[in-house]
Structure prediction request, 414 residues.
Amino acid sequence: MRAAVFAATAISAAVTTLLMGLFGHLPVGLASALGPNSLIAYTVCLVMGFNFAQSMAIVLVDGIIFLIISLTPLRAWVIRSIPKSLKFAISAGIGFFIAFIGLNNMGVIVAGSASTTPVAMGDFTSLTVLLGLLGVIIVLVISSIPQKSKFGFWISKFAIIISLVFMGVLCASLGTAGVGDVETTFYDSSYHISEIGNISKLWGACFFGFDAFASPLAIALAFSLLFVDFFDTAGTLVGVEAGADLLDENGLSKVDDRPAMVVDAVGTCFGAICGTTTVSSFVESTTGVAAGARTGLASVVTGLLFALSLAIYPCLAMFSSNAVTGLALVYVGICMFKSLEKLEWHDFTALGSGFITILAMTLSYSISDGIAFGFITYTVMTLASGKFKKSDITVACCSLAFVAIYIVNFAFIE
Prediction:
């Protein structure tokens, strides 16, 4: 079934990313989100006892509600109501977040001892860690090459691609040779194309799981997924638009992003039908933006590559090493760090709420939690300082909704 799950993920990602390019016109890719993925697999199925069909039905209902909201002005209104300072803090926070993911995946940053520190430095005698650091050094060195000549310009322009290919070949060569703890190889036969036909066992299973809603817990789960999906996507779009210089001086989008929001909602529904968890705009889209992507053409290419992966995935195993993917995440995190220059440093409300947004997003390992803490902090500080304005009502309402969701999650779901 591994190939079937991969096929469901690849097909849903390919179709929705193509739709994003053709109708959303933004350089944003979509795929199954890892947060909801883990929630469905471990909490909903293993702990709560919902079966696969019921879990997919919950995701489908989440997507349908999400689509209805996206077809109304509500979603765009909420995103446009986010204060400028928070928008740029969210963008920078995403940069810190994905850089942290990259360092953690490489083993440079690991979980610490509960009795000492929550995080710690990894084992620098590990070959995987050393390869990860080597990849980061290579991409930073190539990016620093002066762009005075055409050669220097194009070399630095494709710094990520050159670094990924070099590290992919290096890691696969070491893994094939059985060196150390490097498990990467040039080919993975367990994902052979002949096994993809098993997707028929997953396709449409969601339509046979609506009996899950006999339990009030399923309704709470659907709305929890909705809230996470809504604000994860909002944060990703803000981050991508900021990185692509598609936000004006007031933090408002220069492009019509409503079609992109609708496509994202459609992705959740289509993903559930395919047999995979919440399909959402992924924050790694900022990697393409850092490389120069500015239009939907990037999404079209990404979607076609997702489709191509169905046929050649076993040969892409060389890029599966965390030492390979981690360097791209760290590099993009650095590129998004510059969003902080647009923060209103003289305004302590902007400073405080922005700091909490970035800190919470990185340490909670969640875009939506970072936005939640930023919204709540901003609302409390504007009320306390007497700076609360009519335009802040939307953020205040979202803050109350976040508090209510946290109460429900911790009191009834967890």
